[in-house]
Amino acid sequence: MNYKIAFFGVKSWERDIIEKEISKLDTFGVGIFEKEVQDDIELAKKYDVISPFIYSKMEKTLLDKLPNLKMIATRSTGTDHIDVNECSKRKVVVTSVPAYGSNTVAEYAFGCCWQ
Protein backbone atom coordinates (compact mmCIF):
# COMPACT_ATOMS: atom_id res chain seq x y z
CA MET A 1 0.00 0.00 0.00
CA ASN A 2 1.31 3.46 -0.90
CA TYR A 3 0.85 6.30 1.54
CA LYS A 4 1.01 10.01 0.91
CA ILE A 5 3.88 11.39 2.98
CA ALA A 6 4.46 14.99 4.10
CA PHE A 7 7.50 16.54 5.71
CA PHE A 8 6.64 19.64 7.76
CA GLY A 9 8.96 22.19 9.35
CA VAL A 10 11.67 21.48 6.78
CA LYS A 11 14.70 23.77 6.81
CA SER A 12 16.49 24.66 3.58
CA TRP A 13 19.45 22.37 4.32
CA GLU A 14 17.09 19.41 4.86
CA ARG A 15 15.19 19.83 1.59
CA ASP A 16 18.01 18.56 -0.67
CA ILE A 17 18.61 15.54 1.56
CA ILE A 18 14.92 14.62 1.70
CA GLU A 19 14.47 15.05 -2.05
CA LYS A 20 17.52 12.89 -2.77
CA GLU A 21 16.37 10.07 -0.47
CA ILE A 22 12.75 10.21 -1.65
CA SER A 23 13.88 9.89 -5.28
CA LYS A 24 15.26 6.43 -4.43
CA LEU A 25 11.86 5.16 -3.31
CA ASP A 26 8.82 4.03 -5.22
CA THR A 27 6.45 6.57 -3.69
CA PHE A 28 3.82 9.01 -4.73
CA GLY A 29 2.31 12.07 -3.12
CA VAL A 30 5.32 13.36 -1.20
CA GLY A 31 5.13 16.91 0.12
CA ILE A 32 7.97 18.95 1.59
CA PHE A 33 6.92 22.08 3.47
CA GLU A 34 8.61 24.77 5.54
CA LYS A 35 5.45 25.46 7.55
CA GLU A 36 4.48 23.52 10.65
CA VAL A 37 1.55 21.08 10.67
CA GLN A 38 -0.65 23.36 12.79
CA ASP A 39 -0.10 26.22 10.32
CA ASP A 40 -1.99 24.46 7.51
CA ILE A 41 -4.40 21.77 8.70
CA GLU A 42 -6.12 21.55 5.31
CA LEU A 43 -2.80 20.68 3.69
CA ALA A 44 -1.92 18.17 6.43
CA LYS A 45 -5.27 16.39 5.96
CA LYS A 46 -4.15 15.28 2.50
CA TYR A 47 -1.41 13.02 3.91
CA ASP A 48 -1.39 9.61 5.63
CA VAL A 49 2.12 9.95 7.09
CA ILE A 50 3.49 13.16 8.57
CA SER A 51 7.14 13.77 9.40
CA PRO A 52 7.35 16.84 11.64
CA PHE A 53 10.14 18.31 13.70
CA ILE A 54 9.74 19.53 17.29
CA TYR A 55 7.86 22.73 16.41
CA SER A 56 4.79 20.90 15.12
CA LYS A 57 2.72 20.25 18.23
CA MET A 58 0.89 17.01 17.50
CA GLU A 59 -1.64 17.34 20.35
CA LYS A 60 -5.13 15.84 20.66
CA THR A 61 -6.86 18.93 19.23
CA LEU A 62 -4.66 18.72 16.14
CA LEU A 63 -5.02 14.95 15.83
CA ASP A 64 -8.82 15.41 15.92
CA LYS A 65 -8.47 17.32 12.64
CA LEU A 66 -6.41 14.56 10.96
CA PRO A 67 -8.72 11.52 10.98
CA ASN A 68 -6.86 9.67 8.20
CA LEU A 69 -3.42 9.92 9.81
CA LYS A 70 -1.64 6.56 9.98
CA MET A 71 1.87 7.49 11.14
CA ILE A 72 3.93 10.29 12.65
CA ALA A 73 7.66 9.94 11.95
CA THR A 74 9.26 12.76 13.89
CA ARG A 75 12.70 13.91 12.82
CA SER A 76 13.84 14.20 16.45
CA THR A 77 14.91 11.99 19.32
CA GLY A 78 12.12 12.98 21.67
CA THR A 79 8.38 12.76 21.23
CA ASP A 80 7.30 15.31 23.83
CA HIS A 81 5.69 17.39 21.06
CA ILE A 82 3.43 14.43 20.20
CA ASP A 83 0.51 13.13 22.26
CA VAL A 84 1.76 9.54 22.08
CA ASN A 85 -1.09 8.19 24.25
CA GLU A 86 -3.70 9.73 21.97
CA CYS A 87 -1.89 8.35 18.93
CA SER A 88 -1.93 4.90 20.51
CA LYS A 89 -5.69 5.12 21.04
CA ARG A 90 -6.12 6.03 17.38
CA LYS A 91 -3.67 3.35 16.18
CA VAL A 92 -1.39 6.03 14.75
CA VAL A 93 2.19 4.71 14.71
CA VAL A 94 4.78 7.10 16.19
CA THR A 95 8.47 6.77 15.38
CA SER A 96 11.49 8.92 16.20
CA VAL A 97 15.22 9.04 15.58
CA PRO A 98 16.68 7.64 18.81
CA ALA A 99 20.34 8.41 18.04
CA TYR A 100 19.75 11.86 16.55
CA GLY A 101 22.58 14.14 17.63
CA SER A 102 24.00 11.78 20.25
CA ASN A 103 27.58 12.26 19.07
CA THR A 104 27.32 16.04 18.78
CA VAL A 105 25.68 16.38 22.20
CA ALA A 106 28.39 14.25 23.79
CA GLU A 107 31.14 16.20 22.03
CA TYR A 108 29.61 19.51 23.11
CA ALA A 109 29.28 18.36 26.73
CA PHE A 110 32.86 17.12 26.78
CA GLY A 111 34.11 20.35 25.21
CA CYS A 112 32.26 22.51 27.72
CA CYS A 113 33.61 20.55 30.68
CA TRP A 114 37.18 20.51 29.40
CA GLN A 115 37.61 24.29 29.49
**Number of H- or I-type helical stretches:** 5
> Beta-sheet strand percentage?
5-15%
Strands in their spatial order, largest beta sheet: 2-1-3-4-5
Radius of gyration: 16 Å
Sheet having the most strands = 5 strands, parallel
Shape: globular
C-alpha termini separation: 54 Å
Low-pLDDT windows of residues: none
Average pLDDT confidence is 88
The share of residues in helices is 25-40%
Notes on the structure:
It is a single chain. With 115 residues, the protein is of the alpha/beta class. Helix content is 33%, strand content 13%. It has five helices and five strands, in the order βαβαβαβαβα. It has a five-stranded parallel sheet with strand order 2-1-3-4-5. Strand 1, helix 1 and strand 2 form a beta-alpha-beta unit. It starts with a strand and ends with a helix. The relative contact order is 0.15. The mean pLDDT is 88.
Describe, in short, the structure shown.
The protein has 115 residues and is α/β, with parallel strands linked by helices. It is built from five helices and five strands; from the N terminus they run E-H-E-H-E-H-E-H-E-H.
